[in-house]
């Protein structure tokens, strides 16, 4: 009987503690702007062509500041489809940041190329880097007008 009471009290206490935890903060501002205030222009002759046909060119995404460093990507489009993504900046402040980036960024790039958009899932264990990557890629696609 004592074990049942102790187990119930312990479980209840654990549940209350878990419910009082606050969720983690987002990787950046909610309005989609980069904290650095830098608004890079497209890196090639590609200019946004909203409504006038498929986008072509290479477009730099906004640099997104995350808890562990800045993430910035460059997207290449042909006939309005994402054909390449190049990582321009990634968190690299210490060995762990570089390790996370080395496994997360190739996975994010492959998934983005598979679906031809920024609507991709985050990589487990790299939440901040994933969020920065997705936001930077989306800003590049917005610049391209797709």
Can you offer a commentary on this structure?
The chain is an alpha+beta fold. 40% of the residues lie in helices and 18% in strands. The chain has helices spanning 2-20, 95-115, 127-144, and strands at 57-60, 64-66, 69-78, 81-89. Strands 1, 2, 3 and 4 form a 4-stranded antiparallel beta sheet that branches. α2 crosses α3 (127-144). The longest helix is centred in the last third of the chain and has 21 residues, at 95-115. The N and C termini lie far apart (65 Å). Residues 24-49 have low confidence and may be disordered.
Short description:
This protein is an alpha+beta fold and 146 residues long. The protein has helices at 2-20, 95-115, 127-144, and strands at residues 57-60, 64-66, 69-78, 81-89.
Rg, alpha carbons: 20 Å
Shape: elongated
Q: Which band does the percent of strand residues land in?
A: 15-25%
DSSP helix fraction:
25-40%
Largest sheet: 4 strands, antiparallel
How many runs of DSSP E, i.e. beta strands? 4
Distance from N terminus to C terminus (CA atoms, Å) equals: 65 Å
Query: What are the secondary-structure elements, in order, as H or E?
Result: HEEEEHH
The whole-number mean of residue pLDDT values reads 81
The structure class reads: alpha+beta
Tally of contiguous helical segments: 3
Q: Which spans have pLDDT < 50 for at least 5 consecutive residues?
A: 24-49
Can you give keywords for this protein?
single chain, 146 residues, four-stranded antiparallel beta sheet, 40% helix
